[in-house]
Amino acid sequence: MQGAQQDTAVRSPGQLDTPSALWLLGSLAGFYRRPFDAALVLQRFAPPFDFPSLTEALEALGLKAGLTEWPDDDWSSLPLPAVVFLPQAETEPQSISTVSETATVEAISTVSPALVVKHGDHTLAWVRPGQARSYN
């Protein structure tokens, strides 16, 4: 994340649930030996967490962050640690009925973070929320 490129053309695919967002922020803070207090994060950044709020929270922790496209071939060029966001279940679109019309609210996708801690040319080592981590 430190020194990550920011690409404004990268689309934000969803939101993180609060425990996953706090795990990610705490893990990255720990990796860079930064203090982290989940209660303070929640006081400053209200859930749900999307990519702009995650980026802002990381910057508040003194870390540089941004979105970039996943490299096609050469994973070894990926700066570490890197974060990938994997799709979780999507909520179904819901209809909202009013007296005059019925509107459809778009589905909101939820993503789950994975922290990439090692890579080779075509291999990755990552941890997800709830897994033990080591930064060897």
Structural account:
The protein is α+β, with helices and mostly antiparallel strands and 136 residues long. The chain has one domain (18-127). 23% of the residues lie in helices and 24% in strands. The protein contains three helices and five strands; from the N terminus they run αααβββββ. The strands form two sheets. A three-stranded antiparallel sheet has the order 1-4-5, with helices on one face. The longest helix has 14 residues, at 18-31. It starts with 17 loop residues before the first helix and ends in a 9-residue tail after the last strand. Mean pLDDT is 78; it is low at 2-11 and 90-106.
Q: How many extended strands? A: 5
The whole-number mean of residue pLDDT values reads 78
What is the element string, with H for helices and E for strands? HHHEEEEE
Instruction: Please report the number of helical segments.
Output: 3
Strand content bin = 15-25%
Main sheet overview: 3 strands, antiparallel
Radius of gyration computed on alpha carbons: 17 Å
Coarse shape: globular
Spatially, the strands of the biggest sheet line up as 1-4-5
* Poorly predicted spans: 2-11, 90-106
Count of folded domains? 1
End-to-end C-alpha gap: 17 Å
Helix percentage: 10-25%
Oligomer: single chain
Structural class: alpha+beta
